[in-house]
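Quick illustration for those who missed Monday's session on complexes.
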Amino acid sequence: MNLTKKRIVSGMRSTGKLHLGHYFGVLTNWVKLQKEYESFFFIADWHALTTKYNDTAGLKESVRDVALDWLACGIDPNKSTIYLQSLVPETAELHIYLSMLTPQNWVERDPTLKDMTKILRTQGDSDGSITYGLLGYPVLMTADIITFNVDYVPVGIDQVAHIEISRDIIRRFNNIYKTEYFKEPKPLLTEIPLLKGIDGNKMGKSFNNDIKISDDEETTQKKIMRCITDRNRMRRDDKGNPENCEVAYTYWKIFGTEDELKEIEEGCKAATLGCADCKRCLAKKINEHFAPIREKRIELAKNPETVRDILIEGSKKARAEARKILDGAKEAIGMYF
Ligand code: TRP
Ligand code: SF4
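Prediction with tryptophan bound:
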């Protein structure tokens, strides 16, 4: 046990191979945080089921893919506890206690519920009705959080509404059972440079506009060549402007050095640099950045047992801690045990 470090937990739904939005939005941040905090990172396969309960064929593979991406990007099992949500059943038990005391209208207020219902509808074989589990999404998140009684929850802005509900539920638990057992964790907001997809919309797997961490060089190059530039620059000798370059230049800002950015700007404005060449260079930069990560991922993928062991071991470690917290919660509630 570590008495000085503050504790964090965060999770990601198992939706398959991760893209650069995940990389810059979440993973690079976790890699930093794991040095400073006692960290629990989990793959939220129960949360994946809330919208995929009727489509589980790819579930195991998505878990493997997420784990591979995490490990390749530097989430380190020697620094963090990396686990699979469904292998820590203590969380489900805590979820039951929370479900008893969470008012119906609190979960109905969840602003993401509408979006998720839409996802359900587009999935064809579901009738699109809101299930009990989906409605309980923020309650399950609260259970994840209290499983380790953490101080902070590092999340992106899109999850803040959920964390607010979690704080309300935790406060209600403490009030009802006249205890201060659970901490009211604060979100640890990540400055996410909102990453656009190659078509200019928000990068997302379901929009078919993403670049995966695990894409190979050729695929990356092809995707970059397709990405949107300055729409006013129709021909090679039209002068362009990086400020109006919808996607390509926004990537350059992430991957390029100051000098490179200056060079691009000059070349673009003077039409001495064409978009195709500009994007070829960009693809090369991106490929260089991800080369070691992709190599590591390929190596790890050769040993599925190692990845499995990491998840199993991490989940055991998580369970040992979760058991203690759960017992304290049962005590606070007044359960017979
Ligand atoms: N809902 C989060 C997402 O979609 C994943 C998640 C589940 C989570 N449980 C959590 C994040 C608990 C932080 C804490 O990204
Ligand atoms: Fe964008 Fe580069 Fe084309 Fe300029 S030259 S519009 S920065 S892709």
